[in-house]
Design a protein that fits this description.
Shape: globular
Distance between the termini: 47 Å
Structural class: mainly alpha
Helix content: over 70%
Radius of gyration: 14 Å
Number of helices: 7
Largest sheet: none
Oligomer: single chain
Length: about 150
């Protein structure tokens, strides 16, 4: 079980890539979302994935921290979940929105404005996951606003 959680924490090894593992995790989130939309999954299934990703992520992050210390860079399941949330809230799978959502999520994930930074300070796996989920909400709301008003 520990090996499976570590594999999930690193998003099947992407977290081991030497340069920008969080960016690779975000790209995995984009790919997962694009696949789900291309496959034609309906809203009930998309919402299930939205709820399951953070739950799996929390368990995986907890194991990752147990193995590698607090908030290790190789744990990128939090980026997958946050990126997914940005794209789901943004509500489109067209390439301009996928790219825009990727950029917006990465900006909020790296910049960590106000409450995003505060959530990162939560102990253990809570802090690892929560800041990325809020960064995902912020990115998604901007993406949604662009989609609706531009």
């Amino acid at each position: 079980m520990k090996a499976m959680l570590r594999l999930l924490a690193t998003s099947f090894g992407l977290g081991y890539l030497p340069l920008a593992p969080g960016t690779w995790g975000s790209l995995a989130g984009v790919a997962l979302y694009w696949w789900a939309m291309d496959y034609g999954l309906g809203w009930p299934m998309l919402l299930c994935i939205t709820l399951i990703l953070p739950l799996i992520g929390w368990f995986a992050c907890r194991e990752g921290e147990s193995a590698w210390g607090h908030d290790p860079g190789r744990v990128v399941i939090d980026e997958v979940a946050g990126q997914w949330l940005t794209l789901l809230i943004g509500g489109s799978a067209s390439w301009p929105y996928l790219i825009g959502g990727f950029v917006l999520f990465r900006i909020f994930d790296i910049w960590k404005p106000g409450p995003v930074d505060k959530l990162q300070r939560l102990p253990g796996a809570w802090g690892v996951m929560a800041d990325d989920l809020l960064a995902g909400v912020f990115g998604g709301l901007i993406l949604l606003a662009v989609r609706l008003f531009c």
